[in-house]
Design goal:
The complex is a heterodimer of chains A (191) and B (191).
Chain A (H helix, E strand, L loop, with lengths): L3 E2 L3 E4 L6 H8 L17 H12 L4 E8 L4 E9 L5 E8 L8 H16 L4 E7 L3 H10 L2 E12 L2 E11 H7 L11 E2 L3
Chain B lengths: L11 E3 L3 H13 L5 H9 L10 H11 L5 E8 L2 E9 L8 E6 L8 H15 L5 E7 L3 H10 L2 E12 L2 E11 H9 L4
Antiparallel strand pairs in B: 1-2, 2-3, 3-4, 5-7, 6-7
Classes of the chains: A alpha+beta (191), B alpha+beta (191).
Chain lengths: 191, 191
């Protein structure tokens, strides 16, 4: 994975020494890092083993989110489903790094990579109505709520809806004032 | 004493043995004038529905699907005949399992699908902790959409651009049913 360089953060490949911090994110229920388990009992070794086997496959990617000061702030990933036109992304950043724009820039960088370099048609993410910060950030970036699974999660003693949010290729290009150089693919409304 | 109520006068669930796998292979490779191979690919998460499969490949696909401990696919039998498949997945979260039903085209319109779905809903709500049951149907399957809506599932949204059929992208529709809705439908004798 190449580095993806932004103004305030850089997305770089994960290193062995990152997993202590990544495990701490997975153990912090506020970060909603992928693979939430109760009780949260991730160790650095286990996290490294899980993540290496998860991402060491085609059509998947993961980067560390590193601040310009060289501090690890979290990670961001994508999984293609099905290959070549749709991906699902996930992100987690440490609570001490919230509110600084790191997640916003990380998501913008990964979308630029997926739409402009990989030529994908659709980028989606799953979150919950409980995670208002994520929903707000995704909406700000142009994602729409397209699936609302009622009460599909139970978090903080409350029912929470499972939300799928997605953004289509043309929405990405239109919202950023960019011209799409890719020849148009299949039309929509199959059958 | 009856240990469970997962039986009905109309259908029974049986494990898939070699004879059924051979029949599945026949359906997959020969029912090319129907959408069955597409529906099967949905169930087996196979990305090339038009590819003829060997018996070994069919077996491997079914084994792959069942690798997770709370995910199962099994045979649906009616009147001593193998009429289709049932699918139950609670591996991601037992709170919100996913179900699917696939009846061979020649056996449709006999109530086998509805009876299978009813048993799967009972499995979720009466034999596990499920709070909401989910299912998905691609946009190109109007009969499937009408079927899940007739059961009482509510539309939760659509993942846009989920695949390609006949040269066009299609959406994947999501549906859900809450425990309270299941109980109400059951009390009215509708499930």
């Amino acid at each position: 994975m190449d580095n993806l360089i932004g103004k305030i953060i850089t997305l770089r490949p994960l290193r062995d020494e990152d997993f202590e911090y990544i495990a701490s994110l997975k153990n912090d229920t506020r970060t909603q890092a992928r693979g939430l388990r109760l009780p949260p009992n991730f160790t650095a070794a286990r996290t490294m083993e899980d993540m290496r086997s998860t991402y060491d496959r085609p059509n998947r990617g993961v980067w560390a989110i590193e601040t310009k000061a060289g501090k690890l702030a979290g990670f961001i990933d994508y999984v293609e489903d099905p290959p070549r036109f749709a991906v699902s992304i996930g992100i987690a950043t440490g609570v001490e790094h919230w509110g600084k724009g790191y997640a916003e820039e990380a998501m913008e960088l990964i979308m630029r990579f997926l739409f402009e370099e990989r030529g994908l048609q659709s980028v989606s993410l799953w979150t919950t109505s409980w995670n208002e910060r994520m929903v707000g950030l995704a909406q700000k970036l142009g994602f729409k709520i397209v699936v609302r699974e009622r009460e599909a999660r139970f978090l903080d003693g409350e029912y929470s809806d499972g939300l799928m949010m997605d953004m289509l290729r043309e929405e990405y290009y239109a919202s950023r004032g960019l011209k799409d150089e890719l020849p148009s693919g299949p039309s929509t409304g199959g059958r | 004493m009856q240990l469970h109520n997962l039986h009905s006068e109309l259908v029974e669930f049986h494990a898939l043995d070699d004879a059924q796998l051979a029949e599945i292979q026949k359906h997959q490779n020969q029912d090319t004038n129907t959408d069955l191979s597409l529906e099967m690919s949905e169930l087996l998460e196979s990305e090339l529905p038009w590819v003829p499969l060997s018996l070994g490949q069919v077996k491997a696909k079914f084994e792959e699907v069942q690798k997770e401990s709370r995910r199962a696919v099994f045979g649906v039998w009616a009147k001593n005949r193998f009429v289709g498949l049932g699918y139950f997945a609670a591996d991601w979260d037992p709170w919100s399992p996913i179900i699917a039903v696939l009846i061979w085209p020649a056996h449709r319109r006999n109530g086998f699908g509805k009876e299978t779905a009813k048993l799967l809903l009972r499995a979720a709500f009466e034999h596990s902790i499920a709070h909401v049951v989910e299912c998905t149907v691609p946009e190109w399957n109007p009969a499937g959409i009408a079927f899940v809506e007739s059961l009482g599932f509510k539309r939760a949204g659509a993942a846009r651009r989920s695949g390609v059929i006949d040269g066009k992208f299609y959406d994947r529709l999501f549906f859900d049913m809450l425990r309270s809705e299941f109980e109400e439908l059951k009390s009215k004798g509708q499930l």
